[in-house]
Design goal:
Length: 431
């Protein structure tokens, strides 16, 4: 019967020291996706309910370094319960091992983290990336005490070809603070790719990840989902394609200050989804928020776009986007980000295949703003002129980001059109 390897002192396990094992050499981007590692040391938990490797109490920093192992049928394959600076790299959880035909069977959770300052995946190139799949519950679980950890460069939910699925229930679940999830390929999980939940889940950074497999399918729920009082998190520079619920969902049970900036979205249930089902309409935005936080990014209003007129007479061509933003008076600027897509979302609120510009808007009671109510609510100009980048027949949409991070859903989309030609009566054009 398998038993847990409890690590009570500094230990380096290097499975790649074994003959015929191979480290991964593939990247996880569109040019060369996948994972071609071949670990030769396989640990089998035999569905006994035990943990494979666990860190014991009393450990200091940089105590455990696991490299080049394969795991199957553990309740938890690796548990970083104690110590800090532990590493899990170049290892495989689920999927076919090399070209042998042997397929690793999953367990409940691949990696569980309860301590601080650990790294799962790459800091030393592609050879450090892990393949993490086939977990019934969670690929990587970070509990409320898991702070300042880095999850980087892994394939989570996809097979070694980055096309098929090694389904986890949830790709990564975060309940701790100040963790970083960077440059991973996270797709084909049955639930969300990353779930950020609980009041202890604050200041986490989700950056430069791909929530899709080669531009086809994302995750069975959302790419990133925030819930259960999660607040003050940053989701930036990611690509969300084909996630069934939303690219990013800030549920009604989540709180505010969650920044969603510089991402790209295509073919998701919604690109950004705040609160209850469907598009959340703009409401009177009084800016009042309880000290403990407000639900779903305080329902930040999106811009209301009117038109996008394209002129090809200049070189490069120019497109004038007109619209307004209705929100509360603030001495701090709002950021409006503008995106273009080849088609409008079926709900008529655009996604954003690529970002084409941004502008800063300070909402004040000065001339040019229409303000009513107490405290003042204003409607201000949110127009932008962009050079090149946009063609007639494409669709533009925009989001609002408050200075505190509260981010809106996408606005309604407007089609890029060419202004009508006005005929001249007289030869010289004099009317």
């Amino acid at each position: 019967m398998p038993t847990t390897l409890s690590v009570s002192d500094q230990l380096f396990i290097n499975g790649y020291s074994q003959p015929q094992s191979l480290t991964n050499s593939f990247g996880n981007d569109e040019r060369n996706p996948g994972w071609n590692g071949r670990p030769c040391v396989i640990l089998d938990g035999m569905d006994s309910g035990v943990t494979g490797i666990s860190t014991a109490s009393g450990l200091g920093s940089e105590s455990l370094d696991v490299r080049g192992l394969a795991f199957e049928r553990f309740a938890t394959a690796i548990s970083l319960t104690n110590g800090s600076g532990n590493r899990v790299r170049g290892s495989q959880f689920g999927g076919e091992v090399g070209s042998t035909g042997m397929v690793l069977r999953g367990g409940a959770t691949a990696i569980r983290i309860e301590s601080a300052g650990n790294t799962v995946g790459g800091t030393g190139g592609n050879a450090d990336d892990n393949l993490i799949g086939s977990s019934l519950n969670t690929g990587v679980l970070l509990t409320a005490t898991a702070n300042q950890n880095v999850i980087s460069g892994n394939r989570i939910g996809v097979d070694k070809n980055a096309m098929g699925a090694l389904v986890n229930g949830t790709g990564i679940r975060i309940s701790g603070a100040d963790n970083e999830v960077r440059s991973n390929l996270i797709a084909r999980n049955s639930g969300s790719g990353v779930q950020i939940r609980d009041a202890t889940a604050v200041r986490n950074v989700i950056e430069d990840n791909q929530f899709h497999n080669q531009g086809i399918l994302g995750n069975g729920s959302s790419g990133v989902e925030l819930s259960l009082s999660a607040r003050d998190n940053d989701i930036s520079g990611n690509t969300f394609i084909g996630n069934l619920s939303a690219g990013v969902r800030v549920a009604s049970s989540a709180l505010d200050l969650n920044r969603i900036s510089g991402n790209t979205f295509s073919g998701n249930g919604l690109a950004i989804h705040l609160g209850a089902a469907g598009v959340s309409p703009n409401n009177p935005d009084n800016g009042l928020c309880l000290a403990g936080g407000c639900a779903a990014n305080n329902g930040q209003n999106f811009p209301e776009l009117v038109s996008a007129l394209h002129s090809a007479s200049a070189s490069p061509s120019n497109t004038l986007i007109t619209g307004t933003l209705r929100t509360v008076v603030s001495t701090l600027p709002y950021r409006v980000e503008y995106y273009v897509s080849p088609a409008c979302h079926v709900l008529r609120h655009g996604e954003g295949a690529r970002q084409i510009g941004s502008r800063s808007i300070t909402v004040s009671t000065e001339a040019g703003s229409a303000c009513t109510g107490a405290p003042f609510e204003c409607t201000v100009d949110a127009s932008l002129s962009v050079s090149g980048q946009v063609q007639p027949g494409e669709f533009i949409s925009a989001i609002t980001i408050a200075n505190n991070g509260n981010t809106s859903e996408f606005s309604g989309c407007v089609e890029v059109r060419v202004p009508p030609v006005v005929a001249s009566i007289f030869r010289n054009g004099f009317e």
